[in-house]
Design brief:
heterodimer, A: 286 residues, mainly beta, Immunoglobulin-like, 2 domains, five-stranded mixed beta sheet, five-stranded antiparallel beta sheet, 11% helix, globular, disordered N terminus, B: 811 residues, Maltoporin, Chain A, 22-stranded antiparallel β-barrel, 9% helix
Chain lengths: 286, 811
């Protein structure tokens, strides 16, 4: 339980306090169990994100698998994928490995709208994403040592960040953290911010969530991604799924998607194609 | 969002519609009152009749005895005392033998010659100690009510509640009621209870007539009412009489003790997590008394003792305090002032604080207009609020507050025209103030801006009349009508919208309309007819049937499995229609062996309309456009309840079994699907055994089918993070495994030293004695060692058996 910046409304805080409390009194517990998952059918997954970073970008096409299935996801190969921007530029993606399609030249530009068209053996699909401007350019990162307490279940260095939030409501960002170059992707590493309660303010010393705090000597990179409201919702939905549980859990809900079915689409579709502007700051924990 | 154009016209048209509305209302009310009066046949009073009336009290402490029986020998005439201990019985002049009785007390028989209206106040002596050792549950009139009264109530005496195995030593009213047929819970972490397929917000929980809005301490683990200060608790399940209303599914009517008006006395206890003390005594002996009762948990002291820094710095505790005073102003007037205040307080590492609490106040005036007309007037205040915030971190600091406040005025009459008829009628008016949330920075360095949700106000007006007819020993019935008028009133400027859009998606706000402070935004009127009938079928047996229609205008906004202290209440409003329910039930009731055993079986069927739910991923807190995420649908619930109870003897207790189903449907799912608290089978067994005069044992066993939850069947990945996918999008598509729990307790009473009033006892208990990990919920989480993978987990609130010991005393 760390920052309230993002989780002002979140039941997660309450859940953690409660968990701690009932764990002391009643040894409440979570046990891994076997379940017989409900019946259902597979859907097409589209996973792709365009940014302004210099590296190459990819769109992946594959099918969902059963909840507890351990074999790899079945790739959807041989699709024809075209990316167009609102200036009339377009690019046909190349399948570099089974189900992985590369965006070679296009980069995300704030204000431009991108249309991703997919023609595949499963039918035709489309996604539209407009790149929002980056409403908070990070100035710097800092670290604060926190001993183990009711608020921090592990002692260590917790990151904080700084930057001016741009005036005008409706901005969203995501902060992705890297520990020694490795992307931190646990349920406790989500940092999704809306400016709903902080519009136009200087974000001073706001704490970031981490699943594991940092140790001295570690190199930390913080990437700030601009998100549209819809993309913010998509990430929030994933976060809710992963952080949900215990007494005040909300009912399970699917993630929202911006992929729509076009003609002869045979499968339902999940996933996202987003576009963002990314800026990063880096600092060593000392 | 501003409405441009002609504001003045806007205002004008608003004003006009208000006027119109007011006109209709007056007319409606007039019509209605005429109708109501006409409905009830007025008993012929031509023949001269006389009335005996009075109050019933415990001779030792002056506590009124509710539900005490008054029987006129060699006639079919009998009655019982109301919740203020008052009775009235009308007879032809003559000589009678009248029997006054109450279980656990010596019966009084009086030969009386009555020529004119006579007041006979009764003081009963508690039965001798030997008799009292025989454990008694329930009271006399209620036992026969099982068979005799058209309306079925579920009652638990405080004595019984205190004998059930407690969790950590805290006797719990709400948990005790969960052992009765038709009453269940989602799990031990869930606040409140579910009655006949109704949600937790569909129960009206009254403490001395004041509504309580959140009934749990320490999140959902203990009920807010302290049984030490309680006299009585009665539950009306779905077929409630017209004098009750406001919620769809039930009314839990709890009453505080009045306090000993003979001498000062006290009770108390030291438990593992809390201690209690109640003091009561006369202000003026025999005439007025006062009772003060307090309880505080020392969970905060326990956490301080821990060597684990994660636990040590936290402070978490609750307390509740109730006080009541009553004054006999004259033989016809009694005044009661009662107040309750309960609070939970949490502080985590001095960084995060949270508190919530209920406060209530009731001022009541009983007036006996004449021996046949009793009235009670109440002024009631109720306040529920919570607050949370970040402390000692200037940049992140904020405070968030929300709450609901009620001010009510009630006037109810009971008229006893003759021995066959009882009429209840009255009017109630309440003003509800809703503060759905305000969050503001508490330090100038804070990064937060102030956010405030639109406050709301509502006027809630009810009139009712209820006629109970004891036509003959065989046939009796009760029918009535309640009319509720509910108005949402603008507090400050309010803009309302219509919402349109695709099913299951967040809707778009259109047609903004603006209202000024005090304008009526929307009004809802609802007729709620009620009827119950009883036919005697053989010795101490009857068949009953009832119909009731109930309406509910306050709605709990909750999107979580168990309701939390942060959930807010919202009125029926421009976008939220009143919830309505039609309830049918019928049953067979029989008492055996001179009321030693009670048996009942009932079947019920209910339909519910305008049931509030939310689209997927709805944000229910601090969301000013929440209505855009609401969906409304229908519900239905049906079931059969079986109950057998042994009222007395060394071994007493009960077994209850409920077979039921509750389903709902809405725009998200067109076919009926099980509600979150749907449980097919629920079995409860309660046994209390008097092993030796000073040792009693008790056990409860509970079995219930698992509740449904929503689980995904598929998954995919995004940036290496696993994402779950419910491909059918069906809600509540998975059932959690069944629940079993056995609780045991033993009470050891200290030998009483003759001539001393002081007594004490030890209660040792084992909660969840079989050490079973009962599932509360099942969900899927990320695997910490391989973050791209998922693992399903079962969450159990109790991971172990919970032993406890409590020491209670009395002087």
């Amino acid at each position: 339980m760390k920052t309230f910046f993002s989780t002002l409304r979140s039941m997660k805080t309450i859940n953690i306090i409660l968990t701690l409390f009932i764990a002391i009194l009643f040894s409440s517990c979570e046990d891994v169990i076997d379940i017989k998952a409900p019946k259902g059918q597979d859907a097409l997954v589209v996973e792709g994100w365009l940014t302004n970073r210099s590296q190459n970008h990819y769109v992946k096409l594959y099918l969902t698998k059963k909840l507890m299935e351990s074999s790899p996801y079945p790739a959807v190969t041989g699709a024809k994928i075209i990316l167009k921007d609102s200036d009339g530029n377009s690019e046909t993606l190349q399948e570099t490995s089974a189900g992985t399609y590369e965006i070679k030249t296009m980069k995300s530009v704030a204000g431009k709208t991108y249309t991703l068209s997919i023609e595949s053996s499963k039918g035709n699909y489309e996604a539209i994403a407009t790149t929002p401007k980056l409403s908070l350019v990070p100035d710097s990162l800092s670290f604060k040592f926190e001993p183990k307490s009711g608020m921090y279940d592990k002692e260590g260095y917790y990151p904080r960040f700084y930057g001016q939030e741009t005036e005008g409501k409706g901005d969203y960002i995501q902060v992705r953290l890297y520990r020694n170059g490795k992307y931190m992707n646990m349920d406790g590493d989500f940092n999704l911010f809306s400016d709903e309660f902080v519009d136009g303010n200087y974000i001073d010393n706001a704490e970031l969530n981490v699943n594991e705090p940092f140790a001295k000597g570690e190199m930390v990179k913080g990437e700030v991604w601009s998100l549209s409201e819809h993309a913010f919702n998509f990430w929030t939905d994933i976060q809710t799924q992963l952080q949900n549980g215990q007494i005040f859990a909300t009912a399970f809900a699917n993630t929202r998607t911006n992929i729509t079915k076009k003609s002869n689409a045979t499968l339902n579709v999940v996933g996202y194609f987003g576009s963002s502007i990314v800026k990063s700051v880096e600092r060593k924990v000392e | 969002m501003k409405i441009s154009g002609n504001k003045r016209n806007q205002r004008l048209s608003n004003a006009k519609s208000n006027n119109n509305f007011g006109h209709i209302t007056m007319k409606k009310f007039k019509l209605l009152s005429t109708l109501l009066l006409g409905l009830f046949f007025l008993p012929a009073l031509a023949q001269k009749k006389v009335t005996i009336s009075g109050h019933f009290k415990d001779a030792n402490n002056g506590e009124v005895l509710q539900g005490a029986a008054i029987t006129v020998k060699n006639t079919n005439t009998k009655t019982s005392t109301n919740s203020y201990g008052f009775y009235s019985l009308t007879l032809s002049p003559g000589n009678y033998v009248v029997n006054y009785s109450y279980v656990g007390y010596n019966t009084q028989e009086r030969t009386i010659r009555i020529q004119r209206d006579t007041v006979i106040n009764i003081q009963l002596q508690p039965a001798s100690k030997e008799m009292r050792e025989v454990v008694v549950s329930g009271n006399a009139a209620r036992r026969t009510d099982n068979v005799r009264k058209p309306i079925t109530t579920t009652a638990l005496s405080v004595n019984t509640i205190r004998q059930l195995p407690p969790l950590l030593g805290e006797a719990d009213v709400i948990k005790s009621f969960q052992l009765m047929p038709g009453v269940s819970t989602v799990g031990e972490g869930a606040s409140g209870f579910n009655v006949r397929g109704g949600g937790v917000d569909q129960n009206l929980i009254l403490l001395d007539e004041a509504p309580l809005y959140f009934t749990s301490h320490l999140f959902n683990l203990f009920s807010v009412t302290n049984p030490d200060a309680m006299r009585d608790a009665v539950l009306y399940k779905s077929d409630m009489p017209a004098r009750f209303g406001g919620r769809l599914s039930s009314v839990l009517d709890t009453r505080m003790k009045d306090g000993n008006n003979q001498r000062w006395s006290g009770t108390g206890g030291l438990g593992l997590i809390a201690s209690r003390l109640t003091l009561e005594g006369p202000i003026q002996k025999g005439k007025s008394s006062v009772i003060i009762s307090g309880r505080r948990s020392y969970t905060d002291l326990l956490t301080k003792q821990s060597s684990d820094p994660q636990i040590k710095d936290n402070s978490i505790y609750f307390y509740d305090l109730s006080a009541k005073a009553n004054f006999t102003l004259s033989s016809k007037d009694r005044l009661f002032i009662s107040s309750y205040f309960g609070k939970d307080y949490i502080n985590v590492a001095k960084r995060f604080g949270m508190e919530w609490g209920n406060g209530t106040g009731t001022l009541r005036w009983n007036h006996v207009f004449n021996p046949r007309l009793f009235s009670n007037t109440s002024v009631i205040y109720s306040d529920y609020k919570y607050q949370l915030g970040v402390l000692n971190d200037p940049a992140n600091s904020f405070t968030w507050k929300a709450g609901i406040k009620d001010y009510s005025l009630k006037n109810g009459f009971t008229w006893y025209p003759d021995s066959k008829n009882t009429l209840y009628f009255g009017a109630e008016a309440a003003l509800h103030d809703f503060n759905p949330g305000k969050a503001f920075p508490t330090d100038e360095r804070s990064i937060f801006n102030t956010v405030e949700m639109q406050a709301q106000r509502a006027g809630d007006y009810n009139i009712y009349a209820d006629h109970e007819v004891q036509l003959s020993d065989v046939f009796s019935f009760e029918y009535g009508l309640r009319y509720s008028l509910f108005q949402t009133i603008s507090r400050g400027k309010t803009t309302v919208f219509d919402f349109t859009g695709e099913a299951g998606q967040k809707k778009e706000a259109i047609n903004p309309r603006e209202f000024n402070d005090g304008d009526v935004i929307k009004s809802y009127g609802n007729f709620q007819p009620r009827a119950s009938v009883k036919v005697k079928v053989g010795e101490e047996a009857s068949v009953k049937a009832s119909y009731s229609r109930t309406a509910q205008n306050l709605h709990l906004i909750s999107n979580t499995v168990a309701s939390s202290p942060l959930d807010i209440w919202q009125p029926s409003s421009f976008n939220i229609k009143p919830e309505l329910s039609n309830n049918f039930s019928t049953g067979y009731f029989k008492n055996f062996n001179n009321n030693k055993y009670e048996f009942s079986t009932e079947v019920y069927y209910r339909t519910m309309r305008n049931q509030l739910d939310f689209i997927n991923n709805a944000q229910t807190l601090l969301n000013d456009t929440l209505a855009a995420s609401m969906v409304f649908g229908d519900g239905r619930a049906y079931g059969a309840e079986f109950f057998i109870k042994k009222n007395e003897g060394r071994l007493n207790g009960w077994i209850s079994y409920t077979l039921s189903k509750v389903e709902k449907k809405n725009e998200l799912q067109a076919d009926y699907y099980p509600a979150r608290f749907d449980k097919r089978h629920v079995v409860s067994m309660v046994g209390i055994y008097q092993l030796k005069p000073r040792i009693s044992l008790s056990a409860t066993y509970n079995f219930s089918s698992g509740t449904p939850t929503t689980l995904a069947d598929r998954r995919f990945e995004f940036d290496g993070i696993p994402v779950q996918y419910n491909s059918t999008d069906l809600r509540n598509n998975y059932r959690i495994s069944a629940y079993h729990r056995l609780d045991l307790s033993a009470t050891f009473k200290k030998r009483v030293i003759p001539g001393r009033r002081y007594t004490s006892e030890w209660v040792v208990s084992l909660y969840n004695a079989t050490n079973r990990k009962n599932p509360f919920s099942v969900y899927v989480r990320q695997n910490e060692d391989s973050p791209a993978n998922l693992e399903p987990v079962q969450f159990s609130v109790f991971g172990t058996l919970i032993p406890s010991a409590t020491w209670n005393f009395k002087f």
